[in-house]
Amino acid sequence: MRILLQITYNGAGFQGFQIQNEGRTVQYELERILKRMHKTFVRIHPSSRTDKGVHALCQYVHFDTPLKLTPAKWQHAFNSALPDDIYVTAVREIQESYHSRYDCIGKAYRYKVYQGAHRDVMKNGRETYIPDELDLKRMQEAAQHFLGTHDFTSFCSAKTEIENKERTIYSFNVEKTADGYDFHVIGSGFLYNMVRIMVQHLMDIGQGKKDGQDIPGVIQARNREKAGKTAPAEGLYLEKIYLTEEELRADLPDGTEIISKRKRERITQ
């Protein structure tokens, strides 16, 4: 039997999703409970492997099990044993051919920035503080240069091991909030640090440090040094995982072309 968990977590206290040599990880906490229930190790498979300090409003993981529990009992078993910064929001049985990573057809991230005369310690680890005023129009216009299918070598960590760095960005919006800005991006998939580098580049544009018209040239350069710094992890949220094309289309402008399943299979996310 293959079980799919929908989970949410506050990433401030984790070294990331994936198990590390040292420090807390989301994967460890989930597999710890499964090992106790099965009396043997059970591997989980996530839709995304978020970095240290990154949060998730919606994340999926699947695992295989011989245990015959109802979704409600699985949910209770996890939530009664998980720490306070992880919560299982839904559980369902899925086909054994389904893979939460390779069958994911898109992801949405939100990056949250707040402003003010002083840093708000209550937002520490949950949003990024920027004291400077940003030019919203310039950032909105610049963000549109990321749309489409590109090789994002310039906008991913130099440590990225994946050879194919081609990804498709369907939507990228910058929104003014009550106390700052939200950067919301939907794509076929994202590379290591990709969202944080794009967001920092847009914030540099909003501060007049960079020109948005240069983004196509930075993308074409395929040179990490051209894009600039990486925004802090604390403001980043994995907001949504799209499991079906219908879910993805509902969040995209009419007429947006979604890349084919065959092309997605060639891309390691």
From TrEMBL:
One GO MF term on file is: tRNA pseudouridine(38-40) synthase activity
User: Which residues of the sequence carry a binding annotation for substrate?
Assistant: 109
What is the similarity comment for this entry? Belongs to the tRNA pseudouridine synthase TruA family.
User: Which reaction does this chain catalyze?
Assistant: uridine(38/39/40) in tRNA = pseudouridine(38/39/40) in tRNA
UniProt xrefs under InterPro entries:
PsdUridine_synth_cat_dom_sf, PsdUridine_synth_TruA, PsdUridine_synth_TruA_a/b_dom, PsdUridine_synth_TruA_C, TruA/RsuA/RluB/E/F_N
Query: Is Isomerase a UniProt keyword of this protein?
Result: yes
Q: What residues form the catalytic site here?
A: 51 (nucleophile)
Q: What does this protein do?
A: Formation of pseudouridine at positions 38, 39 and 40 in the anticodon stem and loop of transfer RNAs.
Q: What protein name does the entry list?
A: tRNA pseudouridine synthase A
* Native organism: Macrococcus equipercicus
- What keywords is this UniProt entry annotated with? Isomerase, tRNA processing
Q: What is its EC number?
A: 5.4.99.12
- Domain (Pseudouridine synthase I TruA alpha/beta) ranges: 9-103, 142-240
Oligomeric state and interaction partners are given as: Homodimer.
